Amino acid sequence: MTGIPLVWRKSSRSSGEGGNCVELALTTGAAFVRDSKNPDGPVLAWAPAALGALLGRVKDGRFDG
């Protein structure tokens, strides 16, 4: 993926009880997100600014139903 080993961090809000958990790995030029229950599965890659914008909108409640 990047040629360098990624260091994955699990969300501090993950319960560890089979819930919706994600892990994040950061490099200088990208942010990577994966499902913690499927570490060998697909990985989303984001430009750090784009991921920051998405997280800001989530925190603002823009996706609340």
Automatic annotation (TrEMBL):
Pfam families: DUF397. Residues 6-59 form the DUF397 domain. It comes from the Bacteria. It comes from Saccharothrix ecbatanensis. This is DUF397 domain-containing protein. InterPro entries: DUF397.
